[in-house]
Amino acid sequence: MVNLAEEILRNADTRPEHIAMWSGGNSLSYRELREEVFRTRAVLTGLGAGEGSVLGFGMRDTRQVTIAMLAAWHMGATCNLLDFRLKDEDLQAAVKMFKHTLIVTDRPANLPDGIGMIAQDWTARLAASAPTPAPAANPRAPAMAAVTSGTTGTPAGFETTHEALFARSNSWEGSRISEAYEHYLCMSPIAFGATFGWITNVLRAGGTITCFPPVARPSDVFDVVARQGITGTMMVPTVLRDLIAHARQTGRRLRNERGPIWLVTTGAAITEQELRDVHDLLSPRIIQIYAASPVGPICTMFTEEMDERMKTVGTPARGVIVEIVDENGRAQPQGTIGRIRVLTPGRATNMRGRDGNSGGDHFDGDWYYPGDLGVFDGSGYLTLAGRATEVIIRGGVNVYPQEIEATVLTFAGVREAAAVGFPDKRAGEEIAVFAVTEDGITAESLLAQCRTAFPADKRPSRAVIVSSMPLNANGKIVRGRLRRQLMEARADAK
């Protein structure tokens, strides 16, 4: 089996002076990247790490973390990328799960003796060390260890092999998006699965990565795309919305000297109107990705497919099998909503803290269940119908939040919508819709539109106007918070 770091560092032989990374105005060629990986590997060895060690990196500096990750892979260790914003209890839970040899963080953390180090000390050790060339280890240990965010159920740990990461990278239709790999703008923390995946793909392809602050102003994003000759970037919907607003005000587009860049959307559902806005106001070259951390890409959709199928998430990625099944694992006919399951050589292994009864994503044999519901159309395009745990059962009828939301989003003045269920003695559950709206839209006027838009068994009985939706780091709406908000308001009213 080939070591993934070894393959990436081969670029130091074939294109040594080509820029691998830009960060803070400083460049790093592939030759220099290899030197820094050897330097970092020497430091890790001096700290007692080796083949099979689990090494955690939770720093803000994407370039520094990328080098550390490659060094861990090169020596045959397992890398655990940690969000730099994690609290001590989250870090402690990760240590309990994976038994780290070392964790490097930006700030001091309350960790077991001997395994914690702050980034300042880490940087000092690197400065005092020399790059020591060494052969790449045979990757017997997993390449990655990770913990899910918990938005799909109780947080779970899993491991991913070098072989599985190769399979995920190969699932992309590389010939169609090779230009996106030439110069990639990284705006999200590398601890996010999608960000890590794109960084790996770009470095495998010998491209360039420009690291950019995740909280940059929209105008700065447009500036760096034009100035640096960016060819591709990936953004979650929350960032896209800010860029759309800026583009609408200024008329600017995400383009370099050659034309529009590739824009990848992932992390959370994007509405049909938002997708049209991305196409019309930011760039017509779009890749929409439906993915999950334990398996990587599940479905993809490219610009030319979107006119007729903007409500879908595309077709299965290359080498990935997607099925719709019932609760007993029986395949469902086309047009029937059911549980999504995925079979892919990019699957993670050793998932822990999760099973099929936990209400979240899980493995059952070789199949991965992301916890989502979906339906295939006659052309093999998948439409998501919500989370299996979020189906609203009203009077014995299954109501899928996304079908409610899709209709409410067509109402004039509604910018965002989320539907949740809440207990009701007569119907079992009732439907509430939360909405972010323009001025002048009231809960009463929203319910009035619902009365004409929905049949009685799917009609929301409550409407709540909010200034913003509660979102997780990936831009996904946290429906549990909305449900709690509603229940607390009902309790206060009694």
From TrEMBL:
Q: Which SUPFAM superfamilies match?
A: Acetyl-CoA synthetase-like
Q: Where is the AMP-dependent synthetase/ligase domain?
A: 10-346
Which InterPro entries does the record cross-reference, listed alphabetically?
Answer: AMP-bd_C (IPR025110), AMP-bd_C_sf (IPR045851), AMP-dep_synth/lig_dom (IPR000873), ANL_N_sf (IPR042099), ATP-dep_AMP-bd_enzyme (IPR050237)
Known Pfam families for this protein? AMP-binding, AMP-binding_C
Q: What Gene Ontology molecular function terms does this protein carry?
A: acid-thiol ligase activity
Task: Describe the location of the AMP-binding enzyme C-terminal domain by residue ranges.
Answer: 403-476
Q: In its UniProt entry, what is this protein called?
A: AMP-binding protein
This protein's species is: Algicella marina
